[in-house]
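[Q] Does anyone have a clean structure-token version of this?
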Amino acid sequence: MQVILIENVKGLGKANDTIEVKGGYGRNYLLPRKLALMANASNKKIAAEIVAQANRREEKVLSQYEGLVEKINSEVIKVGAKVGTTGKIFGSVTNVQLAEAIKKATGEEVDRRKITITSEEVKQLGEYEAQLVLHPKVKVDFNFEVISE
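[A] Here you go.
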């Protein structure tokens, strides 16, 4: 029996996949729980259109992310921190401060959870590296500079 999955089903497939299942499993589990549809011609066309729309949305989002990557690479990200007399920072620079600095430099808001500081802990003035993962296909490594406020 061929069915088109409506939702992701663990161990079976992702949404809009056309799969082959045993008749009883499809009729008694997948169809009544609205996890799948019968794979007839009209449902296949609907699933193909849904996949095409999702691909167009994905391309649009990826192009927006590519624009953000270009902005980040073209700008110098500067993070201000309070510094003692020896040049050490009070505390350390965090993802939150880095996200705010990116917003200030590029005008684009970035989720702090997507930023990873790849160099050692930021406890002194200087240049450091970080990585921003906007999408599994779009990652950007960038340098940022810690300056005194």
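[Q] Thanks! Anything notable?
[A] The two ends are 67 Å apart (CA to CA).
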